[in-house]
């Protein structure tokens, strides 16, 4: 099944967290699908014969509704990774925040230009980033540009620290 690469924009942070857990779980067959994610959400329920919503708190019910909607829309065999909200690593988040301080609301391309113009070196000199993180930060930023386009707003990828 082929669908837009930005379906993650409609995925809640809570569901994205469950997806990440499923993707990181060595016990779950990979590549993980939306059905794998649904099974993880339902794993706390001990009996399938009693309506789920009688035992669920509001957040669990919202997760169930959200994954059921995605399965209905994209199929239970859709790869879960496509629905994972992309987040910058802590090191890239430091770079993005420095770019925001300097430029306001930079795109990924503008941030990359700033990186090449010395922003990354400046952060290393100030001790905010380690020298050995340089290649990783550059590769991560380039991967975001490749996947989401150069005009994507960098701030949208910030990880809450």
Put the structure in a nutshell.
With 161 residues, this protein is mainly α. The protein contains 6 helices and no strands.
Report what the structure shows:
The chain is mainly α and 161 residues long. It folds into 2 domains: 7-83, no CATH class; 90-157. 53% of the residues lie in helices and 0% in strands. The protein is built from 6 helices and no strands. Helix 2 packs antiparallel against helix 3 and helix 4 packs across helix 5. The protein is elongated and about 50 Å long. The model has no long low-confidence stretch (mean pLDDT 84).
Q: What's the number of helices?
A: 6
Arithmetic mean pLDDT = 84
What is the total tally of β strands?
Answer: 0
Give the domain tally.
Answer: 2
Outline: elongated
For the largest beta-sheet, the strand count, sense and barrel status come to:
none
Stretches with pLDDT under 50, minimum 5 residues: none
Helix and strand string, N-terminal first? HHHHHH
Percent helix range:
40-55%
Strand residue percentage: under 5%
Rg is: 19 Å
Secondary-structure class: mainly alpha
Instruction: Compute the separation of the termini in Å.
Output: 35 Å
